[in-house]
Design goal:
mainly alpha; 121 residues; single chain
Length: 121
């Protein structure tokens, strides 16, 4: 099928149906007009700009600070370390282990040493 045969078929179709030809022509014309209107009519709509008015802040009351994390008075967040503890510091901060705790620690260490030496060649 070549173009001349296709054109002949279209002419024959529209010659038999004049209403269809008129309706198709009108739709094509309206489509072209709408396309031209969309292209040629400038679309320069600028979005509305919003301007905020901000008045300077005038404090009518004293500003309150937010409550932070509460810490007890005796809690020290940092301290200077001494090179050597005094006897009072040792008594305050260290508690000597009981005899039972020392015996458990000794047994655990002995078991660990035994396990290591048994695995050695």
């Amino acid at each position: 099928m070549d173009f001349s045969e296709l054109g002949e078929n279209i002419r024959e179709f529209f010659s038999q149906r004049q209403k269809a030809a008129l309706l198709s022509s009108l739709l094509l014309l309206f489509f072209c007009a709408a396309l031209v209107a969309i292209i040629l009519i400038p679309q320069n709509k600028t979005p509305p700009s919003v301007k905020f008015k901000s008045e300077p802040l005038e404090a009518d009351q004293e500003l309150l600070l937010p409550q932070g994390v509460s810490m007890p008075e005796e809690y020290a967040t940092s301290r200077e370390t001494k090179e050597k503890w005094s006897e009072d510091d040792v008594r305050e901060w260290l508690s000597p282990p009981s005899g039972e705790a020392l015996q458990k620690l000794s047994s655990a260490n002995d078991a660990l040493v035994r396990k290591i030496t048994e695995a050695a060649p």
